[in-house]
């Protein structure tokens, strides 16, 4: 077997779909199918169960994939180590987060402190972040919900209250707090399953034996406050948004939820087995050296000259 076969197998295993894998790899589907067939012949075991045009990774394939992921990750780490030793910069740090708005101030401050670092950013849900960490595609994940898996370690960055945001003039506008049962008939703007807002919303309602009513669910958490302001529903927003002053740009009213554990915990997660570039080491030190909310860049807007 060769490295190309292993790369192809890893991609097919991820998608469990020949056409999508071929599209990502930019190869013809028949060529990809033949490569996988040759690999199975060399191994002496089928790696996929096939039903018509559908394929599913079988137990042999799952077992082999774990070893392939580790082997390819080690090779990628070696390539990165050589590149970092050769380059005059600090190397690259790759970070994934569910909500980009959460870490934009942090990344901006980090680039100010380490301008030679090459920063790459991904937006991913929890399931995708776990895969990216296992595959060595990212160095860190800033996660709003627990990530599970062998060799993953997490450092808590901050713990913040999650508030209920409602449109101006809503019957809850002016209320200090509200219970889940009081808002059982309200329609919510939220994210699809897999994001922390949806997980928290479902958990809070399930604790009361209820199911939330949804008016909108999507993949862009940063748009929730805009939709609430447009009177499309109510929703859960972390207190960070209120403290950052976004309510002056996107007007909403804030209400506390009288419910236990109505908070978000942000953690910095990495795979202990993967190589860290100098940039990644600096990022970890920078991120954990001071309170997360203190990573705010100064206002750099030009000021009018003092007329005096």
Query: Can you give the mean pLDDT?
Result: 86
Secondary-structure element pattern, one letter each: HHHEEHEHEHEEEEHEHEHEEH
- Gross geometry: globular
Compute the number of strand runs: 12
- How many domains in all? 3
CATH topology of the largest domain: D-Maltodextrin-Binding Protein, domain 2
What is the helix tally?
Answer: 10
Q: Any idea what the CATH architecture of the largest domain is?
A: 3-Layer(aba) Sandwich
Distance between the first and last residues' Cα: 76 Å
At a glance:
This protein is α/β, with parallel strands linked by helices. The chain has helices at about 5-15, 20-25, 30-45, 60-85, 100-115, 125-135, 195-205, 225-230, 240-245, 280-290, and strands at about 50, 55, 90-95, 120-125, 140-145, 150-165, 175-180, 185-190, 215-220, 235-240, 255, 265-270.
């Amino acid at each position: 077997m060769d490295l190309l076969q292993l790369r192809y197998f890893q991609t097919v295993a991820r998608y469990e779909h020949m056409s999508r894998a071929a599209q990502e790899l930019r190869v013809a589907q028949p060529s990809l199918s033949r490569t996988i067939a040759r690999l199975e012949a060399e191994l002496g075991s089928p790696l996929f169960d096939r039903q018509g045009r559908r394929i599913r990774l079988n137990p042999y394939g799952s077992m082999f994939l774990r070893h392939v992921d580790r082997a390819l990750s080690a090779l990628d780490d070696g390539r990165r180590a050589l590149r970092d030793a050769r380059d005059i910069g600090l190397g690259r740090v790759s970070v994934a987060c569910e909500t980009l708005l959460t870490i934009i101030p942090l990344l901006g401050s980090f680039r100010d402190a380490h301008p030679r670092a090459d920063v790459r950013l991904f937006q991913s849900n929890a399931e995708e972040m776990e895969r990216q960490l296992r595959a060595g595609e990212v160095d860190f994940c800033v996660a709003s919900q627990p990530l599970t898996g062998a060799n993953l370690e997490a450092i808590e960055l901050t713990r913040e209250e999650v508030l209920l945001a409602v449109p101006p003039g809503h019957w809850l506008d002016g209320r200090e707090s509200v219970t889940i049962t009081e808002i059982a008939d309200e329609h919510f703007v939220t994210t699809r399953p897999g994001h922390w807002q949806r997980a928290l919303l479902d958990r809070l309602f399930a604790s009361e034996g209820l199911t939330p009513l949804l008016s909108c669910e999507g993949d862009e958490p940063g748009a929730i406050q805009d939709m609430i302001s447009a009177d499309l529903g109510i929703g859960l927003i972390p207190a960070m948004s209120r403290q950052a002053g976004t309510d002056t740009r996107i007007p909403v009213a804030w209400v506390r939820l009288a419910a236990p554990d109505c908070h978000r915990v942000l953690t910095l997660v990495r795979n202990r087995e993967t190589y860290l570039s100098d940039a990644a080491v600096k990022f970890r030190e920078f991120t954990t050296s001071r309170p997360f909310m203190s990573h705010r860049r100064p206002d750099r807007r030009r000021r009018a000259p003092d007329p005096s």
